[in-house]
Amino acid sequence: MDVQEALRITDELICAHTGTHLTDLQQAIVLGCWEGKPYERIADEKLYNPTYVKSVAAQLWNQLSSVLGEKVAKINLRTVLEQRSRFQSIPLSQVKVEHDEQIAISAQDWGEAPDVPVFYGRTEEVATLHQWIVKDGCRLVAILGMGGMGKTALSVELTKQIKDEFQYVIWRSLHYAPPVTEFLANSIKFLSNQELTNLPEDAANLLSILIQYLRSHRCLLVLDNAELILEPGHLYEQYKEGYEGYGDLIRRVGEVSHQSCLVLISRQRFREIALLEGPIRPVRSLKLDGLTVETTSEIFKEESLSDQDKWSELIQLYRGNPLGLKLVAKTIKSLFNGKVSEYLQLGTITIMPGFQKILDEQFQALSILENNLICYIANYHYPISLKQLQEEFQSKADIADVIQALESLGWRALIEKSTKGSELLFGVQPVVQKYITKSIKSGNTTDALEP
């Protein structure tokens, strides 16, 4: 019996059991184990995380064991398949099929996912997230960034590209978030093809059932607008009343071993993720920065803007924020006949209503300390040092809180970090500075501290 015959038999057994053929990685595992290779070498050859390869292999052995009615593992795979080849004693039509696995083929619930007819750039970001989720087997991934950066569009495009790697896909917006018990119950019903309906009412037991499905199936869960389940105005994240269970969901998904992935899209970092994440851990965060000049140029071309030599200056003013640039491009087209140079001659930054709303929401979510810090920084038209901030705020707040506030503002992309020699500096981007100045004049935000 050669390896091709082994692959054929394994594929037939798995297909009869689950309704799907072997994935490329499962084929590589069978081939590697047939040739006596350790999991680490298989992972290295296929550019996967070794831990993830081991978990996929364990799932494969469990499925084969269920089909054949005997224990199948790496060590006896060759023996089991050779016996199967000799006797063919179990017709595939009679192989026991787990009903919920058979009907779970490519089951997708896109919920409130928006249509994204045009997707600009983000090639590197998509590649990074694909590597983390598909290759490295990350269990929990956060996509973070300022409003208008295109986090939702990125998540939709990413999901489209990797959906075939999963048996189940659930995409949800938390804009009008249901209680966590409702979300868990609905997810379980979907994953069980509505066969599990008599469910417990408490979140703890529902979460345990969901984890079982995340272990036995390859599931992709996407939660957009996650910052909306947090109570605004707190330096250290607090969940809105009745939504604390989402914190348990995030923590359990990140801590417990399984073969699925939860993608969280948020303007704000979650403490559960901060405690678990790391570059080689199965929990990671991607901060979304502005679009490149090359990508943003496509937006300007659509609006037929002229003065291409001035485009990079306009892009820098808005730090590549797609929404801000789309809105200002429409204004330049309608009021300035598409001439970017004439708009720039105004010497000011326009914050359109759609972008104003996003900045309003982000500032309303800030704590008093965060608001005071960013207003103080914005008083200066140049970056200021951490030492200066420490001296200014040492009598007003604990230094640990100041550091936490600066880190939080950085993840929200409301402040910018730079260095001068060995000195760490903090500043704000022009559009944020304009917003703060405008808000202070209208009395809509905390007064800036005088420098």
Count of helical segments? 21
Cross-sheet strand order for the largest sheet: 1-3-4-5-2-6
Order of helices and strands: HHHHHHEHEHEHHEHEHEHHHHHHEHHEEH
Number of strands: 9
Unreliable stretches: 87-104, 446-451
Radius of gyration, taken over Cα atoms and rounded to an integer in Å: 26 Å
Helix percent reads: 40-55%
Q: What number is the mean pLDDT?
A: 86
- Overall shape: it is elongated
Quaternary organisation:
single chain
Portion in strands: 5-15%
Q: Find the structural class using helix and strand composition.
A: alpha/beta
Major sheet description: 6 strands, parallel
| Cα-to-Cα separation, first versus last residue | 80 Å
Structure description:
It is built from 21 helices and 9 strands. It has helices spanning 3-18, 24-34, 39-46, 50-68, 77-87, 99-102, 123-135, 151-162, 180-191, 203-216, 245-255, 271-276, 293-302, 311-317, 322-335, 340-344, 353-364, 368-378, 386-393, 399-411, 430-442; strands at 107-109, 140-144, 168-173, 219-224, 261-266, 283-287, 384-385, 416-420, 423-427. The protein is elongated. Helix 11 links the parallel strand 4 and strand 5 (261-266). Mean pLDDT is 86; it is low at 87-104 and 446-451. With 451 residues, the protein is an alpha/beta fold.
Give a short summary of the structure.
With 451 residues, the chain is of the alpha/beta class. Helices cover 51% and strands 10% of the residues.
Which descriptors would you attach to this protein?
451 residues; alpha/beta; six-stranded parallel β-sheet; three-stranded antiparallel β-sheet; 21 helices; disordered C terminus
